[in-house]
Amino acid sequence: MRVRRLAMVCAVIAAGAVGLYARKKPHTTWLDTPFTSWKRNQVIKLFNDSPWARSRGYRGQTTGEHGNFNPGVTGTSGNATLGVNTVDYSFTARLFSAEPVREAYVRMLQIMNHYNSLAPAQKQIFDSKVDWLLHADVSKEVVVALFYHTNDPLSERSINQWFATQTAGTLRQNAYLYTSSAGQVQLIKYFPAHGSGGLGARFIYPRMINGKPILQAGDQRMRFQLYVPQVGQTIYLDFQPSQMMYKGQLSY
């Protein structure tokens, strides 16, 4: 009888020890696994709705029966599609310099090209083509890739033309990063969406100012802001630095 009771006590203690270990074990998610094992839905979420990818919608001016008209934007009178009374714009800003975003992009390419089914030689060729993305030197730059869309074809043509004809010089006074540590950070390079592989327009900012990183872990936010004439206002997309930890460090 005593032996049986001892066995029961030992079992309870062992179970308690296992439970204690489980409670102390750090919480892990799919982000803690190698990116090559990420699933399609996980990649899509990281690329569109994550600490490194923020989206926001904006509504244009309501119009009458002959198309869209925004009195604050030149060239919109009579230029929109008939039957579209309200133009909706959506913008997604992705921190493409952040390692998880670049890994998500490569992982989606793997999924689309059935990477796991490729022969070793084919995998090697694939890897050589995406290696520059995974190991890009972003030690001096922060890259914001901006994807945009609208429900109106003519408005989309207009906004595409606007982004395609901009330069770092024309955007420097209205395309900023803002952080609590560095304040307003000016644009240094700009690349239009054409030829970006679906990434959108890319805005490049310095990673360091006066020898210090523009973003610190204690900052409350990092904001990307851009005045878009087709929308008629400045768009704002905010990132939360406290959520941008990846592999034990702040990734942006």
Task: Describe the model.
With 252 residues, the protein is of the alpha+beta class. The protein has one domain (30-250). The chain has 6 helices and 13 strands. It has a 5-stranded antiparallel β-sheet with strand order 1-2-3-7-6. It has a 4-stranded antiparallel β-sheet with strand order 5-4-10-11, with no helix packed on it. It has a two-stranded antiparallel ribbon with strand order 8-9. α2 (40-48) crosses α3 (99-112). It is globular.
Core attributes:
6 helices; globular; 26% strand; five-stranded antiparallel sheet; 252 residues; alpha+beta
- Give the total of beta strands: 13
Strand line-up of the largest beta sheet: 1-2-3-7-6
| Oligomerization category of the chains in this entry | single chain
Low-confidence stretches: 1-25, 62-80
- Compressed to H and E, one letter per element, the order equals HHEEHHEHHEEEEEEEEEE
Tell me the number of helical segments per DSSP (H or I, 4 or more residues long): 6
**Gap between N and C termini:** 63 Å
In helices, the fraction of residues equals 25-40%
Mean pLDDT: 83
Characterize the largest beta sheet: strand count, sense, and whether it forms a barrel.
5 strands, antiparallel
Number of domains: 1
Radius of gyration: 24 Å
How large a portion of the residues is in β-strands, by DSSP E? 25-35%
Give me the secondary-structure category.
alpha+beta
Overall outline? globular
Summarize the structure.
The chain has 252 residues and is α+β, with helices and mostly antiparallel strands. It contains six helices and 13 strands.
